[in-house]
Amino acid sequence: MNRVEIIAEVGSVHDGSLGNAGKLIEAAAAAGADTVKFQTHIAEAETLADAPMPPYFQGEPRLEYFRRTAFTPAQWRGLMLRCAERGVGFLSSPFSAQALDLLEDLGAERYKIPSGEVTNLPLIELIAQTGKPVLISSGMSDWAELDRAVETVLRRHDRLVVMQCTSEYPCPYERVGLNVMLAMKERYGLPVGLSDHTLTIHACLAAVALGASVVEKHFTFSRLMYGSDAAHSLEPAEFAQLCQGVRAIQTMLANPVDKADAGRYAEMKRVFEKSLVSLAEIPAGTVLTPALVGVKKPGSGIPAARLAEVLGRRAARAVPADRLLSEADILWD
User: Fold this and answer.
1) Where among 235, 254, 273 does a domain terminate?
2) 110-138 per-position pLDDT tens digit
3) pTM
4) Among the three residues 254, 284, 302, which one is the final residue of a domain in this structure?
């Protein structure tokens, strides 16, 4: 199976600090991420001055927030270079046609369509026209809206991953929707993934076990940081646990076990299983009864499963107490 991609969603957790953004790349790479994802905002191109902030973050007006936390093209180029130096992929969500142009000028290799842009078909069409791979996060969209977004990309190419996402911050386990991820796989016949907003790693691990090709989690230095996403992000040690868990699950899925291959456990069976033994001294010719024959370790004699087959037969020869029975100790005729 293909390697599951683990995306560390930095978003705007850097709070406009280029130094923080670079260090977040380094921390995500050290934790085991394959890709570091950002959000590319050009404030005036995507929002009105009086647009509301999301309910989970009321720190400052949205236009001001996007202006303050934006990077210049040169700074974005530096972040892309930092990702390359650390061996992780660079990914960003453009929130406007101008943001897409900026990323195209920088040579971005693929794009993520965030949940709030699923109904922005003009932007999706522009992204699809680049011919580059796309991830699309389902978020707050219904099936009809998601169908239109997927169809818009598929008219151009099929290098698309559809990701289940619940636009609740934080997302309770009851609302993760792993069943929706599976329904997407059947509905579209495309790779699927999970963009997870719970506060733990469990949902992502479950998604991988169910066949997710990609998992994405918000990433921060500390949940105490200021901003819209830090409070529902994973810290580095937690993200490292996520990466370890995903790789472990992927190894399990890639290596099916043949239950018929019991021969490899021959030594373990000898140590742990039980065999038929004499519970007392048995004279030759004696009828074997439960008082005389029982089961004890080791498992190197007649298997315990054959006890009923042996009871009622006679001893072929005298057998001392507390000894493994052999085939030769029993009259089989």
Assistant:
1) 254
2) 999 999 999 999 999 999 999 999 999 99
3) 0.89
4) 254
